[in-house]
Specification:
The protein is of the alpha+beta class. It has one domain (5-114). It has five helices and five strands; from the N terminus they run E-E-H-H-H-E-H-H-E-E. The protein is globular and about 50 Å long.
Length: 119
């Protein structure tokens, strides 16, 4: 079966206004609309860096116990969590896998590494 949703755990986590920490989430594969429609948003037109925030808010379907993941939530992430999500997005929307081929520098044994263990 084709996988369209991937679990993740943020390195630090989102802290909501009540002080609750939200780290576990689900990201779905992006559609063309997820990348094209935000280009019409005035926030993106005035600041292209905002595109990332809107796209992530569209593809993250769950983050902890939050009822809605919106651009304001993504704005409130720690920089390391945002970087993690951007890398995760690129990986799952590239080849759909969180695994990379690696080689031991000493014995040159090749093996597979999950760059997002636990997902």
């Amino acid at each position: 079966m084709f996988q369209t949703e991937y679990g993740f755990v943020l390195p630090k986590g989102y802290v909501d206004e009540d002080g609750s920490l939200h780290r576990d989430g689900i990201m779905r594969l992006a559609t063309a609309a997820d990348e094209i429609l935000p280009l019409r948003d005035p926030r993106v037109q005035s600041n292209s860096a905002y595109l990332t925030l809107i796209v992530l808010s569209r593809v993250i379907t769950k983050l902890g116990e939050l009822k809605d993941v919106n651009p304001r939530i993504i704005e409130g992430l720690f920089a390391s969590d945002l970087a993690y999500l951007q890398e995760f997005y690129m990986k799952i929307n590239g080849d759909g896998s969180t695994h990379l081929q690696a080689k031991c520098p000493k014995c040159e044994h090749q093996f597979e590494v999950d760059i997002f263990p636990g997902e």
